[in-house]
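Quick start: read one record
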Amino acid sequence: QVQLVESGGGLVQPGGSLRLSCAASGSIFSINDMGWYRQALGKEREWVATITNGGNSNYADSVKGRFTISRDNAKNTIYLQMNSLKPEDTAVYYCSATVILTTRATVAGSWGQGTQVTVSS
């Protein structure tokens, strides 16, 4: 009923920038909190950033000052602007959302398939 599709990943040199997008589709009435997570090879998934329906955001210490999360409610889309990228940012990036369906049912913890970000010289 709900699909999340991440895009925008790729290969970038240290110090470079990328912007990730996550578009939600389906029988959506509204979307509450949305967030970005990442998982590097051999590591557990970690939280990166969260944005509320009202636009308030929070960031992990590791990305604070370098990444910016934003959302476009009309498009049911969130973004992650990543600047000053470091090799340690290399990971698969996933978005997650709490979605209210047109039936008014709540779907918590929906996940996309992820997009690969590789930071390397």
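The first strand starts at residue 2 and ends at 7.
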